[in-house]
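Table S2 (text version). Query chain:
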Amino acid sequence: MNNRESNNDFFSYQGTINRKDYIINMLILSAIFIGLHFIHFENFADFINYKFLLQVLIFMKNLLEFVILFSALSVIYRRIADFSLYKSYKFNLIMKRIFVLLYVLPVLYLFCIRYFLDIMPFLANILDTLVIFVIIPIAFITSIIFSFIKSN
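Corresponding C-alpha cell output:
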C-alpha cells in the first residue's frame, strides 16, 4: 500500500484516513473501550467455580483493551499522516514528534515503565500525576482537534 492511499483499517499504520472515517473509527473504539472498562469479571467470582477461567476472562478483557488502545493509536497516526501529507518536511517531523510525545510515551509509561518505577515511589508519583492530569487531557483534546483539521 502506498503511504498516500486512504484506508479504513483499524490496525494499520500505513496510508491515511479522512475526517469522516477518523471520527467514526474513534467513536467505535472509544465506545468499545469504555464499555469494556465497565465489565468487571471479578464480581462474578461467586458464580464461576473455576478460578482459572476467571483469570482467563480477566486476561482476555485486558488484552482486548490493549489491542483497542493500539488501534486508536494507529487511527490517530494515519489522521496525522493525512493532514500533514503535502506539508513541509519540518511540519511532518514536528507532528511525528508530537505523536510520540503525546500518545506513544504515555502508553509505554502506563503499560510498561510504570511497573519498573515501584522502587522509586516519589518519581512514580510525579510521573503518574504528570501523565494523568496533563498529558492525557492534552492528548484527548488534540485527538478531537484532529477531526476538524482539513487535509489537502
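Notes on Table S2: The radius of gyration is 18 Å. The mean pLDDT is 87.
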